[in-house]
Design goal:
The structure holds two protein chains of two kinds. Chain A contains six helices and nine strands. Chain A is α/β, with parallel strands linked by helices. Chain A has one domain: Rossmann fold. In chain A, helix 2 packs across helix 3. Chain A is globular, with a radius of gyration of 16 Å. Chain B is an alpha+beta fold. Chain B contains four helices and three strands. In chain B, strand 2 and strand 3 form a beta hairpin. Chain B is elongated and about 80 Å long. The model of chain B has no long low-confidence stretch (mean pLDDT 88).
Amino acid sequence: MQTEALTGGFANPPIDSAAGFRAALNAMARPGKIETVSGGTAPAPVSAAAAVLLLTLCDAETPLYLAPGVDSPAMRDWGAFHIGAPLVKAEEAQFALGDWAALSPLERFRIGNAEYPDRSATLIVEMPDLSNNGAILSGPGIETTAQLSLPEVEIFRANRALFPLGLDFYFCAGERLAALPRSTKVEAA
Amino acid sequence: MAKAEQEKTERQAWMGLLAKSSPARLAALMDKASDVPDFTWLRVPEAGGVMVRGRMGGTGAPFNLGEMTVTRCALRLESGEVGHAYVQGRDKAHAQRAALVDAMMQTDRASDLRASVLDPLEAEREAQIATRAAKAAATKVDFFTMVRGED
């Protein structure tokens, strides 16, 4: 196993994962708010923020899908050592990691069902950059409106229409992350 | 390939020995052994539970025997060797020592370490098993049926 696969875990797992979870929670509770995280690194091209999310949210009971682009032997080894999440195809995943083009089409991910809307996938999207301009967000957790540089708009509107079913998204760029839950209304700027 | 297989078996043997060793004894042997190199953590020691499974007679259907507490860690020496350890109980310093031995066994200090740490551990372990087996053997009862005289 390559050394790269063995490094990059949390130095102090209880504290670091609590901080990571707080950031993930804040981002999801305030859609559009950009949080900065640190403490984890995964083999390139996976961003530090995505690595922290994986280390915090995933374990042996959360099937993970690695989209083409991030699905490398180094990344598989890293996941096996630090997370232990089973790698599955997109249709069965609870978490998915990749850039926007590699994750499409989104119809293949689970959106939950009426009895269990929580049995849906959370997508961790790698972005080249993240900023508070672009699509206009409103809904729970947003006082008036917020803005976030989303890759597109129409797909998120369709996802909102599925509520209470649907997908949740994290967007990662470097050490910064933001989230878009299924409850948020998205409009083009 | 055969060489890699053999190395794997040897490593399994010493990792197994370290996992079952007593914390105090390993600490004493390590103190007597030479200096300990610097290292960085890959996985800091963490305690957790594992389910121990068994098979009746070694071949039957697997069943859950019970949970046991283990401590695991992984570290890398400055020279690059990676050591892993899973040990019984929740002694984190013990896991660290076991991982250090595992890593150092991959360096040129292997023969040193085998003589000063692993061989004594192995001898004691075998003596312990032999004592236990002897104690158990003393209580052995052989059943046999006397020939009955009615026919």
